[in-house]
């Protein structure tokens, strides 16, 4: 009996101690969890406060950004802002950079950012150029200088045999400096070489529109076949313009645009002919195709055949170029000064050339022509704005 009572008492005491230890452990864990939550909450609120106060973010934007980066002291973010200011970044560019790459707020500016900027300065970028480049494409700062940026620049320089052309290509598309050339650029160049595109044309395209060659090679092979079916010779410069046109949109978008031309009465043969003449006519938005065709066909009386044979001007501004010049041309014809216009000349000529060809040429016969043209510019702008209202 005594043994039993002792054992029960002992076990009961042990259970009490265990229960007490368990209870203390739960309290301890809760305390740690609460402290961690409190720290996280403090970091969140400080980050939101800093971004609204220092960067001018709205509370909603600051809260969203704080989901990606948090800090409890201003040292690192202040350091980043001062660093960027010292390198010529404007306030707007700094804010844009932080919006798009908020993790930069925690950067070690001297170790991670300064070497990249110094390299880009060394190859020829000015402070203003670099500030614009990085605020437009801040992803560049995420990549390794030694493993990606320097090798990419060296490869571009070797391809072009020119530092200047390499830099201009980067300015047009900064992503080329951090792209994986083995997966996109080099295979795509080989595809184009294999179908007879001259090397000079490939390099010209890389220089002027580098994004054209920076995508999945499987898709490029599909596009190449589509362009070849349209009847464009791969040895001509126009071939890569057509590749760019197809590259700029999805297949479904292209079909929608073709359908718009069909609704205006163009046959498939006319559409193909227009594309072969000027591939960029397929890059125009559906709304712009509709509004331009409506103006030229319904208001000006131009024939569909005539437009299809000279489609280059479809990419021009309806308000600033097509409407005022078409209205002015009608006046010239009505006065007997001109019998007919070639549409590509009428709408594609630069402003300087247009004034020389159609205003200065007849200044003695009709000295009021320049005034008349300026009136047409104003009228077309008012008409366009009223149609949008």
TrEMBL record:
The record's keywords, sorted A to Z, are:
Transcription, Transcription regulation, Transcription termination, Transit peptide
The GO annotation for biological process reads: chloroplast organization; DNA-templated transcription termination
Write down the InterPro entries for this protein, in alphabetical order: MTERF, MTERF_sf
Species, as recorded: Gossypium hirsutum
Check the record and name the SMART domains matching this protein. Answer: Mterf
Gene3D superfamilies per UniProt: Transcription termination factor 3, mitochondrial
The keyword Protein biosynthesis belongs to this UniProt entry's keyword annotation = no
- The protein depicted here goes by the name Transcription termination factor MTERF8, chloroplastic isoform X1
Gene from which the chain derives? LOC107936114
One Pfam annotation, family name?
Answer: mTERF
Secretion signal, residue range per the UniProt entry = none
Keyword Nucleus in annotation: no
């Amino acid at each position: 009996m005594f043994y039993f009572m002792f054992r029960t008492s002992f076990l009961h005491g042990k259970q009490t101690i265990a229960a007490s230890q368990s209870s203390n452990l739960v309290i301890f864990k809760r305390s740690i969890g609460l402290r961690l939550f409190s720290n996280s909450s403090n970091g969140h609120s400080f980050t939101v406060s800093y971004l609204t106060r220092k960067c001018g973010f709205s509370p909603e934007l600051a809260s969203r950004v704080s989901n990606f980066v948090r800090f409890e002291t201003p040292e690192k973010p202040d350091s980043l802002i001062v660093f960027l200011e010292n390198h010529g970044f404007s306030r707007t560019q700094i804010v844009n950079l932080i919006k798009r790459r908020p993790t930069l707020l925690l950067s070690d500016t001297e170790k991670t950012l300064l070497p990249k900027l110094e390299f880009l300065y060394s190859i020829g970028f000015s402070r203003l150029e670099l500030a614009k480049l990085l605020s437009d494409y801040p992803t560049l700062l995420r990549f390794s200088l030694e493993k990606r940026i320097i090798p990419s620049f060296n490869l571009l320089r070797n391809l072009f045999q020119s530092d200047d052309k390499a830099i201009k290509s980067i300015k047009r598309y900064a992503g080329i400096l951090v792209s994986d050339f083995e997966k996109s650029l080099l295979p795509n160049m080989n595809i184009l070489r294999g179908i007879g595109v001259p090397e000079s044309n490939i390099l010209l395209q890389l220089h002027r529109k580098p994004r054209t060659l920076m995508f999945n090679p499987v898709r490029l092979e599909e596009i190449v076949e589509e362009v070849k079916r349209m009847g464009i010779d791969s040895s001509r410069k126009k071939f890569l313009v057509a590749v760019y046109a197809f590259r700029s949109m999805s297949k479904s978008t292209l079909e929608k645009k073709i359908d718009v031309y069909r609704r205006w009465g163009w046959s498939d043969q006319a559409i193909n002919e227009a594309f072969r003449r000027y591939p960029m006519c397929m890059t125009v938005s559906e709304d712009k195709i509709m509004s331009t065709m409506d103006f030229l066909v319904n208001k000006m009386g131009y024939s569909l055949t005539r437009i299809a044979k000279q489609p280059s001007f479809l990419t021009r501004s309806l308000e600033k170029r097509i409407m005022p010049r078409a209205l002015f041309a009608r006046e010239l014809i009505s006065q007997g000064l001109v019998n007919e216009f070639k549409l590509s000349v009428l709408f594609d000529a630069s402003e300087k050339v247009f004034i020389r060809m159609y205003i200065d040429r007849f200044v003695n016969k009709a000295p009021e022509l320049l005034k008349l043209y300026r009136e047409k510019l104003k009228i077309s702008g008012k008409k366009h704005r009223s149609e949008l209202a």
